[in-house]
């Protein structure tokens, strides 16, 4: 298994880390799943270039803290520096490798998902038709974020104790990405005229202004596109309207305010872009199916 895991173990060295915390398991068959805990402090002297070699795998990175980095082209040319929020993910196909340049501290969990693993999970799941994953950039994904928080303690545990838990986590993570980012997840991604960066820009604008009263016209203005184009193409790219995506993001922020600060509903509503506590309750019930006042545990779903 050691030889088969060489590509997994090299993830840390690609980021300039000699012996980062590392987990690996074969959750179903022959294909391995791995997670590497990455932490690079801010460097004033140099910006770290990261080059991931070509391999038959997907690279999934969960940002544990905000980070800034840019893509590097094959000729070394750098793209614009993009901001990635805590709790967001990037999902990249490594068929041709990938290169970035870090412009900030990096605290993240890197998952390597070989094609063979995706095939194995697909075979035993309801998403048997999805064999490929769509690339994502700065995607807000609360499920992957929660899985990442569950994995963190495992880095400190003995191998024998963590293996059964890690197997279940690996299967859950792969099933989730197949469901949400498999080619058949929306059936419409290829018809969207929005580039992945335009989609990210739209989501970034909503995330930056979620506490304000914004509409699709404001989002379209920020992107420099007609409102009707954004309405149609955002839906085609994500399977959600801008309004639905923004409401879900606001609910996520409301949950965080509830757990971290213990605020009253009126204060949470005010901070998270809802008209009032009644509006917050209405959207929560629509999303979860229950009144948040019935049980604080519901905020965890």
Automatic annotation (TrEMBL):
Pfam families registered for this protein in UniProt: HTH_18 (PF12833)
Molecular function as annotated in GO: DNA-binding transcription factor activity; sequence-specific DNA binding
Gene3D superfamilies per record: Homeodomain-like (1.10.10.60)
Superkingdom per UniProt: Bacteria
Keywords (A to Z) from UniProt: DNA-binding, Transcription, Transcription regulation
Presence of keyword Transcription: yes
Domain (HTH araC/xylS-type) ranges: 200-298
Protein name: HTH araC/xylS-type domain-containing protein
Organism encoding this protein: Allorhizobium taibaishanense
């Amino acid at each position: 298994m050691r030889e088969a895991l060489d590509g997994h173990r090299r993830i840390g060295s690609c980021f300039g880390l000699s012996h980062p915390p590392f987990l690996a398991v074969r959750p179903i068959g022959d294909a391995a799943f791995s997670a590497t805990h990455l932490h690079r402090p801010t460097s004033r002297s140099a910006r770290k270039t990261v080059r991931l070699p070509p391999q038959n795998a997907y690279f999934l990175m969960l940002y544990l803290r905000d980070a800034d980095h840019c893509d590097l082209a094959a000729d070394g040319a750098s793209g614009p520096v993009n901001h990635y929020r805590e709790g967001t993910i990037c999902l990249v196909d490594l068929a041709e490798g990938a290169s970035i340049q870090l412009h900030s501290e990096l605290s993240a969990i890197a998952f390597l998902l070989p094609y063979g693993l995706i095939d194995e999970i697909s075979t035993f799941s309801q998403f048997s038709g999805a064999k490929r994953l769509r690339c994502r950039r700065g995607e807000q994904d609360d499920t992957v974020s929660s899985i990442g928080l569950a994995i963190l303690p495992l880095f400190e545990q003995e191998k024998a104790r963590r293996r059964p838990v890690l197997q279940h986590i690996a299967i859950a993570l792969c099933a989730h990405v197949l469901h949400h980012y498999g080619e058949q997840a929306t059936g419409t991604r290829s018809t969207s005229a929005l580039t992945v960066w335009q989609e990210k820009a739209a989501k970034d604008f909503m995330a930056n202004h979620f506490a304000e009263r914004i509409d699709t016209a404001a989002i379209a203005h920020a992107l420099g596109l007609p409102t009707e184009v954004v309405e149609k193409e955002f839906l085609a790219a994500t399977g959600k309207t801008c309004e639905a995506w923004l409401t879900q993001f606001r609910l996520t922020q409301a949950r965080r305010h509830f757990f971290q600060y213990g605020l009253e509903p009126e204060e949470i509503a005010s901070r998270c872009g809802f008209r009032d506590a009644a509006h917050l309750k209405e959207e929560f019930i629509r999303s979860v199916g229950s009144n948040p006042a019935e049980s604080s545990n519901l905020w965890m779903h």
